[in-house]
Task: structure prediction
Amino acid sequence: MTAVLGTGAHLHAPDFSDADLAELNRSFETAPASAVIEWAVDNFHPFMCMAASMTDAVLIDLAVKVEPSIEVVFIDTRYHFPETLATVEKVRRHYGLNLRVLTVPPQPVDLWKADPVNCCSMAKVEQLDRALHGKMAWMSGLRRAEAPTRATAPIVARDLRGLIKVNPIATWTDLDVSGYIADHDVPVNPLLEQGYPSIGCRPCTRPVADGDDPRSGRWAGSDKTECGLHL
Ligand code: SF4
Result:
């Protein structure tokens, strides 16, 4: 099967072969993010959601302009900064968002300290699995410029569950993001202005110095670099 941009064809996730995804990635590499989102909405909505970290609302702003009822998922790990929780509420009100908050069950004390891999797995990945139940696809704001480990991230791929994972702003630079925020008055997490270019849970996120790897404040002092959501 050949999947072509703009055909309006309604394909189910399993219908996309690896060759289809490769062709789509080639097309999307130079396409605007809104075109990628339109393709995703055409093919998967309402069986698609978007995972939001609430660092900023750039992808949300782009997506609701294509489909206002798109489901946005925020995973409350119980360890978020108060600023992040306030941003969730601000963004929800700003866009009248179809927001789904999944809150993790209480965890054993200090699991994040003793076993962050398992903590992330329990807290985040398990909740994302819940959010994706019955879905064919999901979107995230993952970008290649965020970290060397993300430098080759595709725009569209099949995740480990077999669902289609769409990263509409994978090609965006930091400048693209800040320019879009300024041009469209997009709500942002106030921690961005306080030395936190990448914002996760409070115990596992440190501020970073200007010029440092933006994600170096995540799980600082350990080998861990990803929470596992984007696999
Ligand atoms: S980022 Fe830290 S606190 Fe949050 S789920 Fe992962 S290990 Fe737990």
Q: What stands out?
A: Helices lie at 18-28, 33-44, 58-66, 82-95, 111-114, 116-131, 174-184.
